[in-house]
Amino acid sequence: MIRACLSALALVLPLAAHAQGGVGSALPGTAAEARGTGDLGVVIERATGSVLVVDQSDRAALCRVEGLGDLSHASLTFSPDERFAYVFGRDGGLSKVDILTCTLENRVVQAGNAIGGAISDDGKLVAVSNYEPGGVKVFDADTLEQVADIPMGSKTVGLADAPGSRFVVATWDTGEVWVLDHSADPADPQVTQVKGVGANPYDALMTSDGRTYIVGLFGEKGLTTIDLWADPPRPRRILPDYGKNQPDLPVYKMPHLQGWTLAGSTYALPAVGLHQVLWADAASGAETGRTDVAGQPVFVTARPDGRELWVNFATPDNGTVQVIDGMTREVKQTLQPGKGILHMEFTPRGREVWLSARDDDKVVILDTRTYEKLGEIEARAPSGIFFTTRAHRTGL
Amino acid sequence: MIRACLSALALVLPLAAHAQGGVGSALPGTAAEARGTGDLGVVIERATGSVLVVDQSDRAALCRVEGLGDLSHASLTFSPDERFAYVFGRDGGLSKVDILTCTLENRVVQAGNAIGGAISDDGKLVAVSNYEPGGVKVFDADTLEQVADIPMGSKTVGLADAPGSRFVVATWDTGEVWVLDHSADPADPQVTQVKGVGANPYDALMTSDGRTYIVGLFGEKGLTTIDLWADPPRPRRILPDYGKNQPDLPVYKMPHLQGWTLAGSTYALPAVGLHQVLWADAASGAETGRTDVAGQPVFVTARPDGRELWVNFATPDNGTVQVIDGMTREVKQTLQPGKGILHMEFTPRGREVWLSARDDDKVVILDTRTYEKLGEIEARAPSGIFFTTRAHRTGL
Fold first, then answer.
1. Which Pfam families does the annotation name (chains A, B) (predicted)?
2. What residues contact A199, with CB distance under 8 A and at least 6 apart?
C-alpha cells in the first residue's frame, strides 16, 4: 500500500514527477512539494539546448530541462502566474517549459531562424520575431497553436510587448516599425506601420512604461525613438553620433539595446566599439558625458534602485565586471567574478546579482553592496539568466 | 487503501488541504494542484477579520482564511517567493498566511495597536510600526519570533523598506525619521535619526527606488522629503501650501500618502479636504497645476504605464471613480463601479483594475482601456487588494 500511495503521490507532486529521468531531471535536493514561484528563475545553457531552473532563496539549481534545440542566441518570457517559461531558440523553436514540474510541456518549430519573442499583457498571446522567413508569428500561450502570421517582407528584430495586447517590432530590410494591436481580434491584428525609421534596425528597446520604442541602426549612425502615445506615432532621431565610428573599427559585439539603462531621466548606454559608457539626456537625446571603462561594454545594467550601474564586456575583457556610481559616474569597483561573463540579473529588489560565467560553467552570485560572493551554481555554459519577476514587466 | 491514499494526498495537496473546514476554507472550484503564485492576490475583509485569496487569471476567489483579528485598518506584504502574506492588523496582530495551502500558518499579537509593516529586501525580516506602545518591532519572517525591539518614545507611522535590510519610519510625537539598518546585525540595527522633520507626521511614502522618503504632516502645512542617498540625510520641505487649508474645513479622510503617484517627473496627489488633484514637479516640489474632481480624493493611482490616473473618493462620493488623462490632466471618464470603493489595484502590467466595493460586498474588475466590467468576486466588506507582484517592489 505504501508503494501504491507513493505512486499516487508521484502523479501530483511537482518537482518529483520527473526525478526518474525523462525530459526533465531533478537535481539533488529537489523539494517534492508545492511552492511559490516568485523566487524562481531560468538559466539558458547555450551549448546543450537545456535550461536550468533555479531558486533565488536557496541560491540553488532545482532541475534541468533538456531538448530545447539551438539555444546559442536564446531568450525567454514568463506567463503571468510565473509558472511557464516560453523559450525562443535561434533555430525557430518555441518551447513552453513548466518550471514547477520541470517538464518541456510543448515545443513547436515555427520558423527557420528566430530572434526572440514577447508575451502580451494579458498573458494570452506569445509572439516570435523571425529572420527566416521574416515577419512575426503569434501563438496561443496555452496551446502554442498559431493564432496569426504577419509577414512583413523583412527580417524582424527587437520584438517587444506594449500595453493593450500589442506587439512592436522593427524590420531590418525595410527600416520600419510595425505596431500590432491584437485587442479586437487576436487572429487579425490592426497594423500601424511607422516608415522612415532608418537603415537596417538591428535591435530595439521598449521603455518599461511601454511608451517609447528605441531602435538601434546598423546601416547608419544615431538611433530612432518612437512615442507610441502619439497619434500617429512618428520617428525621431536621437544621439546622431551614436554607432560605429570608423569603418575599420573592430567591434567584437554589437551591444544589445537591452543593455541600455534608463536611470531617472538619464540613459546609460554602451558605446559601440569603444571602451566607454555614454550618458544621454532621455528628454533631448543629447549626450551628456562619457565614462571610461575596462573594455567594450555589452550590458550597462542599473541595480534596481538605480544608484549603481553594472557593466560587462566583450571579449577579450569578458572576465571583468565594473560597477559605476550613478551619481558621480565614476567606476567604483572592478571585479573578476569568473570567465566569460555573458549576462547579469538582479534579484527583484536588488539585493543580489547573478552572473553567468560561461567559461567556468557556473552562475556566480554576488552581494550588490559588499561585492562578496554569496554562492555559485554549476551550469553548462550558461548565458541568459531570467528571474520570474519579469512576468510582471512591460516591454520585454 | 484508496481512502488511505486520499488521506496521504490531502496532506500534500495545497488548496484542498483545508477544504473540509478549519481555519482556511476552500471555495467551490478550488483546484487541488501545484500552481504558480505570480497571479495570486489577497483581499482584506475588514469587518470579519478574514482575507480572501484571489486568482487574477481566473478572476475568482480561491479560498478564505479567517481568524486574523481586527482588520479595520490592515495592510500586508508578501514573501519574495510570493507564497506568504504578512498581514498587519489594527489590533497589533501580525499574521502569516500561506496563500498556497490557504492556512493561517502563524499569528502573534505583538503590540496593542499597530499601523502597518514592511518586509526587508532579503525577505528575512518583517517590521511592524506601532501606535501602542510605539516604536518598531522586527520579526523573523520564517518563525515570527521577535528579532529586535526599537522603542522610539513615540507612535510611529509610514514604515517602509529600503534597500540593504533597512527600514524607514516617522515618529508622530517627536517629528523625526529613523533609518534602521539591519544589514550587519539583524538584532541590533544601526540607527540614523533625522530630526526636525515637522510637527506630527501622520503618514509617509517611499519612492519605488527606495531613495526618497516623503512625510505628510498633520501639525503643520507642507511635506518633508528626505534623500536617503545623502550622507547624512537631511529634511527638505516641499509643497509649503499642502495640507488642510482652513481650521474649520471638514476633511472626511486624511489621504494616505500611498495615494500619491509619481508619473515621470510629476507627482499627482490628493488635495486635503478639497475636490482637487494637485500636480507637483518632483524635482522642485513646486505645485504645477490642479484638476477638479468629483469629491475629496483618497487614492490617485497611476495605471502601470502612467498614461492614466485613477481616483477614488471619500464619503459621500465613494461610489464614484474618475480617470484622469496623464497628458492633458483632464478627467476623461467618470465611473460608478459600486458602493463604497475603498481601494484600487492594477494587474501588474495594467490590463485590469480591481476595485473593492465595500458596501456591495464585492470586488469589481474593470478593463482599463474599455472601462467595461470583466467580472465580480463576492467578498465580505472588502478593503485593501494586494497582488503578489508587490513582493518584488521596494518601499511598500
1. Cytochrom_D1
2. A175, A217, A218, A219, A220
Q: Searching chain A, which residue's CA lies closest to the CA of residue B3? A: A5
Residues of chain A with pLDDT under 70: 1-33, 244-254, 263-264
Element (H, E) at A352: strand A352-357
Distance CA B311, CA B295 (A): 10
8 Å CB contact of A80 and B306: no
- The ipTM value here is 0.90
Contacts with B209 from chain A: Cβ below 8 Å: 304-307
Q: Is A56 helix (H, G, I), strand (E, B) or coil?
A: coil
Scan for cell 497611476, then name that residue.
Answer: B302
Q: Residues 130..189 of B with a Cβ closer than 8 Å to A: which?
A: 161, 163-164, 183
**With a CB-CB cutoff of 8 Å, which residues 64-83 of chain B face chain A?**
78-83
The DSSP output letter for B218 is S
What is the CB-side half-sphere exposure of residue A177 using CA atoms within 13 A? Answer: 32
Respond yes or no on whether the N-terminal peptide bond of residue B337 is cis (omega within 30° of 0).
Answer: no
* Residue B276 CA: distances (Å) to CA of B241, B286, B324: 14, 16, 12
Q: Does B366 touch chain A (CB under 8 A)?
A: no
Quick one: DSSP state of residue A49? T
Q: Which residue has the cell 542617498?
A: B229
Query: CA nearest B52: which of B387, B396, B365?
Result: B387
Please, which residues bridge with residue B61 across strands? B54
Residues near B355 by Cβ (< 8 Å), separated by ≥ 6?
Answer: B312, B321, B337, B338, B341, B343, B344, B363, B364, B365, B366, B385
> Which strands sit side by side in the sheet containing A352-357, from one edge to the other?
A341-346, A352-357, A362-367, A373-378
Domains and CATH numbers, chain B: 121-238 (2.130.10.10)
- How does strand A266-270 pair with strand A201-206? unpaired
Give pTM, 2 decimals.
0.91
Residue position matching grid coordinates 478593463 = B367
CA distances from B151 to A334, B101, B148, B235, B313 (A): 41, 35, 10, 22, 35
Question: Residue A337 in contact with residue A349, Cβ under 8 Å?
Answer: no
- pLDDT over 70 at B8, yes or no: no
* Residue A372 contacts B, CB cutoff 8 Å: no
* Model pLDDT, residue A246: 61
Cβ neighbours of residue B28 closer than 8 Å, sequence gap 6 or more: none
> Contact A169/A129 with Cβ under 8 angstroms?
yes
State which residue of chain B sits closest to A1, comparing Cα positions: B1
Q: Cell for A159?
A: 520584438
Tens digits of residue pLDDT in A14-73: 333 333 333 456 554 344 368 999 999 999 999 999 999 999 999 999 999 999 999 998
Q: What is the mean pLDDT of chain B?
A: 89
Is the pLDDT at B10 greater than 60? The verdict is no
Interchain pair A39, B80: CB under 8 A: yes
Interval A274-331: pLDDT, tens: 999 999 988 888 899 999 999 999 999 999 999 999 999 999 999 999 999 999 999 9
Half-sphere exposure of A257 (CA within 13 A, CB side): 26
Contacts 24+ apart (CB under 8 A), B231-237: B232/B192, B232/B194, B233/B177, B233/B179, B233/B192, B233/B194, B234/B194, B235/B177, B235/B194, B235/B196, B235/B197, B235/B198, B236/B285, B237/B198, B237/B285
Q: Which residues pair with B119 in a beta bridge?
A: B126
Tell me how far apart the alpha carbons of residues A387 and A371 are, in angstroms, rounded to a whole number: 20
Give me the pLDDT at residue B273, please. 85
